[in-house]
Design goal:
The structure holds 2 protein chains of 2 kinds. Chain A is an alpha/beta fold. Chain A is built from 8 helices and 7 strands, in the order αββααβββαβαβααα. Chain A has 2 domains: about 35 residues, no CATH class; about 160 residues, Rossmann fold. Classes of the chains: A alpha/beta, B alpha+beta. Chains A and B meet through helix 4 and helix 8 of A and helix 4 of B.
Chain lengths: ~230, ~190
């Protein structure tokens, strides 16, 4: 049972980084009581993420995988230069919609996140928050050589080198910068993987949760959010 | 404008004047008088536009060089005021009261070079980096490649082969690798 809850002490340690709205405070209830509220533990769930089990029937699971592959809802989140390559996808010229790919404004409504290019440590923090809020089953598409080995920013003090150490990646699209056609090819590859039942990296994230968190906390030094963002 | 530079030289005893172009001149001045000179140019000489504030790290001399770039829109004339400050406990008089956007430049210099500007608003807050606990990254003693290798996870490069050795092993395993050269030809 102890493993079921996240470590509270870790949250206490970093309280110096908290924004004012995240600090402990006293709140008056409608019937006049005064209670202490700790936003990080009271407003967010502390439960760990769970593995998304496949359906027991293989026929049903194959059907579900086909359905998932045909509706990829992409989070409109741009990091780095690749965010310029995404808007042309939605124009009539490339028309990603014919493959069942569409953009969504919030992580709660989407199941694919495109990491489009170099990722600063500051942005990685926002990516982790968005990724964890997305619905299962969810997929990560990494665009450009910066997400593979750092690309031309391999020696930068502020951009990560390997994305797969921080969040699990399903498909890499190499290039600097890949053209929208390459991105479409990446989507086709992702659909292939989903239909074959091989795009199970969201479960890998859950199984190796502590390892991923250790890697993330190694570089995000002002960790002022819950360990898992529901 | 030559007239102006001469007057400034008498008034502030400039240490160096470099005429970069017809309409652009670098003036070097001691640290104590730098903000006085910027204020004078703004108030009396019509240099109403503050272009930028930049910094150069002269690590060999133990100095930071601050440059205040000013523009005179009517006469289309630019002046850059340079001043050298010590690298140890670097500190400079704040000039955020002259133009509002100097505030942002000074916060950036504080974060990237560690230069303190007392009384600048929000100078202690994070500007771009979050939770940075190393030496400021734009200082030249900061080794960015070593930091990157230590902090992030560098991916090993791919295997490479020397073409000559590779071809020899593949095609002619028994042949010598270098052609014999006669001493006469040399």
């Amino acid at each position: 049972m102890t493993n079921d809850k996240l470590n509270k002490n870790q949250i206490e340690d970093v309280s110096k980084f908290f924004a004012p709205e995240n600090k402990k405070k006293n709140v008056e209830t409608p019937d006049g009581q005064i209670i202490e509220v700790n936003p990080l533990s009271d407003y967010f769930s502390e439960a760990r993420p769970k593995v998304h089990e496949p359906n027991s029937s293989k026929v049903v699971e194959t059907f579900l995988n086909w359905a998932r592959a045909e509706s990829l809802w992409v989070l409109g989140f741009g990091t780095g230069c690749g965010s310029i390559e995404i808007p042309p996808l939605l124009t009539p010229r490339f028309d990603a919609f014919r493959f069942g790919v569409q953009m969504r404004p919030t992580p709660r409504q989407s199941n694919v996140i495109i990491i489009s290019g170099y990722l600063a440590v500051k942005t990685l923090k926002r990516v982790i928050r968005s990724y964890e809020q997305m619905q299962n089953p969810k997929y990560v598409l990494a665009l450009g050589s910066c997400t593979i080995n750092g690309g031309m920013y391999f020696d930068s003090y502020n951009t990560i080198n390997r994305l797969d150490k921080y969040i699990p990646v399903d498909v890499y699209v190499a290039g600097c910068m890949p053209r929208p056609e390459a991105l479409l090819a990446g989507f086709m590859k992702l659909k292939e993987l989903i239909k074959a039942g091989k795009a199970e990296n969201a479960n890998k994230y859950v199984e190796n949760f502590d390892e991923y968190k250790a890697n993330q906390k190694k570089i995000i030094k002002d960790w002022n959010m819950p360990d898992y963002n529901w | 404008m030559k007239n102006l530079i001469e007057r400034l030289h008498i008034k502030y005893s400039l240490t160096d004047i470099v005429n970069q172009r017809d309409n652009f001149v670098y003036l070097t001045i001691r640290k104590e008088n730098a903000i006085d000179l910027v204020t004078y140019l703004k108030d009396y000489e019509g240099f109403s536009h503050f272009v930028l504030l930049s910094c150069v790290d002269w690590i060999e001399d133990g100095k930071f060089q601050l440059s205040y770039f000013l523009n005179q829109p009517n006469k289309k004339f630019d002046i850059a005021i340079r001043t050298m400050i010590d690298r140890e406990n670097a500190e400079m008089q704040s000039s955020h009261h002259l133009w509002k956007h100097i505030e942002t430049y000074q916060r950036e210099l504080r974060e990237m070079y560690g230069i303190n500007f007392p009384k600048n608003p929000r100078i202690e807050e994070n500007f771009i980096l979050e939770g940075w606990d190393e030496i400021p990254p734009m200082r030249r003693e900061f080794d960015t490649k070593r930091y990157s290798e230590k902090t992030f996870f560098p991916r090993e490069g791919r295997k490479t082969y020397d073409p000559a050795t590779y071809m020899k092993d593949k095609l002619y395993p028994n042949a010598p690798i270098t052609a014999k050269v006669n001493k006469k030809d040399e």
